[in-house]
Automatic annotation (TrEMBL):
This is Glycosyltransferase family 2 protein. Signal peptide: none annotated. Residues 9-130 form the Glycosyltransferase 2-like domain. The chain crosses the membrane at residues 248-270. Gene3D superfamilies: Spore Coat Polysaccharide Biosynthesis Protein SpsA, Chain A (3.90.550.10). It holds the Pfam family Glycos_transf_2. It comes from Parvularcula marina.
Length: 336
């Protein structure tokens, strides 16, 4: 089949990102891989930051949304516009190295459309610190960016399998992404990448960390790591991810762990002074459960992966949620 359009479509969802966008555009303009388009979806920003794209008319196509659709909705708007065979999602506070797209494209050709591709994320302004080596999903329903805040010396020297990539800087095959429903727009933002990664896993997919595809990420540089907004959406969406995706056969083991860790994190949230947004997020999660249970029925119908394959990619260490270490595995063969 002849490929029409670019090989890659880079999607950036913007909401009041300010001058960060100029840095992102400049980094994309320096890419050694040139066969790509850049789509900026502006989520009703009030800072006029989308106008910065005018400095790069050869590079950026802008789509102005009249309302804030969240990260999930913005990615879906971009995916609908995209002409590339592969989608590359990039946060406006993530700055790629010049060969980033080249490394991702080489991995796409090696691993194929049923593999999600993640980037090595270094902490911006702290080159010796990791922002993340892919998403880890614990059997308790707790998810984290593997290695966040730890030494960059943990970066592997070869590609490794991960549960799922962080969508701050990830590549995925457009047709497969859309066939699995894309990102759940009810999530608005946070955890939507983990939710999609879980659905992708249930449908027999795998995920790989591309060890030499590198970005420098501020990490909640726009919303704030412990802001009420971040805490609310993180807690609510963690519940929804667990309910939608956990196979029924694993529930007797995973549900008690989910409740145990949720209680522990609730106590910790009050110690950190973020108890109120935590409680609001938990209450909103419970309120949305009927809708998520309906979605669960559809998600579980797509499952083709064996139960052992799903259980095997989860993290089962009782101390892992406290250490937040990366979980890097040898790359498994694709599902037959």
């Amino acid at each position: 089949m002849t490929q029409e359009g670019p090989a890659l479509s880079v999607i950036i969802v913007n909401y009041n990102s300010g001058e960060r966008l100029t840095r992102v555009f400049a980094a994309l303009d320096r890419q050694t891989w040139r066969d790509f388009e850049t789509l900026l979806v502006d989520n009703a920003s009030s800072d006029d930051s989308a106008s910065l794209a005018a400095e790069y008319p050869h590079l950026v196509t802008v789509k102005m949304s009249p309302v804030n659709t969240g990260f999930a909705g913005g990615v879906m708007i971009g995916a609908a516009m995209a002409k590339g065979e592969w989608l590359v999602v990039l946060n406006p506070d993530a700055y790629p190295e010049s060969d980033w797209l080249e490394k991702l494209m080489a991995a796409a050709m090696e691993y194929g459309p049923e593999t999600l591709l993640g980037s090595v994320q270094l902490t911006e302004d702290e080159e010796d610190r990791l922002d993340g080596l892919g998403d880890v999903y614990h059997m308790s329903g707790v998810a984290w960016r593997g290695g966040f805040g730890k030494s960059a010396a943990l970066t592997p020297t070869e590609d490794r399998e991960i549960f799922a990539p962080c969508f701050a800087a990830a590549a995925l095959h457009r047709e497969r992404f859309l066939s699995l429903g894309g990102l759940d727009e009810d999530f608005f933002c946070y955890h939507e990448d983990v939710d999609f990664g879980f659905r992708h896993r249930l449908a027999g997919g795998r995920a790989v960390l591309v060890h030499d595809a590198i970005v420098h990420h501020e990490g909640s540089g726009i919303t704030g790591r412990y802001s009420d907004f971040t805490v609310f959406h993180g807690i609510r969406n963690r519940m929804w991810t667990f309910v939608k995706n956990t196979p029924l056969a694993l529930m007797p083991v995973m549900l008690p762990a989910y409740l145990f860790f949720s209680a522990g994190f609730l106590l910790r949230s009050f110690m950190l002074g973020i108890g109120k947004p935590y409680m609001r997020g938990f209450a909103a999660g419970v309120k949305g459960l009927p809708r998520m249970l309906k979605k669960r029925g559809e998600v579980q119908k797509t499952r083709t992966a064996a139960l052992g394959r799903i259980a095997g990619i989860l993290n089962w260490s009782p101390i892992a949620p406290f250490r937040r270490a990366p979980d890097l595995r040898p790359i498994s063969p694709p599902q037959p």
